Amino acid sequence: MFATSYCRKCDEKNSTVFFAPVCIENFDARTGKPSDETIGTHICYDCAAERQWVDPRTGNLLDGVTL
């Protein structure tokens, strides 16, 4: 089973396509604090595309973009 994960930009839960995941067991990556459950964060594809970080032809991050 995968941990619940939220987009760091729009707060969408469990995006299908995403970049830059952060997930640490028994840690809430949203608050940066220990937690009884594991909660991760990511940047969803839609938020990355909206910020023009993604090549629309390939779906990959553009050269020079680091997340």
Description:
With 67 residues, the chain is mainly β. It has one domain (4-50). Helices cover 9% and strands 28% of the residues. Strand 3 (27-28) and strand 4 (33-34) form a beta hairpin. The longest helix has 6 residues, at 45-50.
Task: Quickly describe the structure.
By secondary structure, the protein is mainly β.
The unreliable regions are none
How does the helix and strand content classify structurally? Answer: mainly beta
Helix and strand element order? EEEEEH
The rounded Rg comes to 13 Å
Order of strands, widest sheet:
1-5-2
Oligomeric state as shown: single chain
Largest sheet: 3 strands, mixed
Number of domains: 1
Query: Overall pLDDT, averaged?
Result: 95
Determine the N-to-C terminus distance.
Answer: 25 Å
Task: Give the proportion of residues in helices.
Answer: under 10%
Q: Overall 3D geometry? A: elongated
The number of helices is: 1
Q: How much strand?
A: 25-35%
The total strand number stands at 5
Topology:
Layout: E1 4-7, E2 18-22, E3 27-28, E4 33-34, E5 39-44, H1 45-50
Parallel strand pairs: 1-5
Antiparallel strand pairs: 2-5, 3-4
Task: Give a quick set of tags describing it.
67 residues; mainly beta; three-stranded mixed beta sheet; 9% helix; elongated
